[in-house]
Predict the structure.
Amino acid sequence: TKHPLFVQSLNHLAGVDEQLGDHERALAQCERAVAIVEQTEHPDELLHAALMQNIANVYWSLGDRERALASYQRAVSLLEGSLEGNDPRLATAWFLLGWSQAEMGRTDEAIASYERAVAIHDGGFGDGKPLDTPEGPMVRFWLAKLMIEAGRDRESAVALARRARQQLAARSQEGDVTLREEIDRWLDEHSVRPSP
């Protein structure tokens, strides 16, 4: 059996290869690491899930959307079996799954995945403490946009976008300004205004 640090090194090498645009090599590194993890007597499910997310990213870069989606789904499954409560890694996994589903036009599935991510962010799956992660406001806003596209409840969608805007106003992180401006434009367009 290979040492876990070896598997982590393969994972990091795959990330470097992916950044350099060598998707085939990145995929080979990830698949080698997954094979090692799956042959381990007591596999590290969190590492396995991270590898599956990386494989999903590589498949996405290669244009193989179905395999990417299956890999994102596997990552969610592994994390759900390993983590409890409102762990940010689980929220991120649901967010990535929802993003891939939305990009593939699977709106209802994406809405369900984003709703899970929002519920985790709100503390609905554990100790009740809300998470403060960079993607929290983004997942709320993307869920709001999808709800409108799918013809779902406009007031709920607008409330989600307003909550995302409030979260952004309460912090100052790189990239927040652009997202705040996008949410403001969207709210101007979609907010329910009283009739004259």
Q: What stands out?
A: The radius of gyration is 19 Å. The longest helix spans residues 45-62.
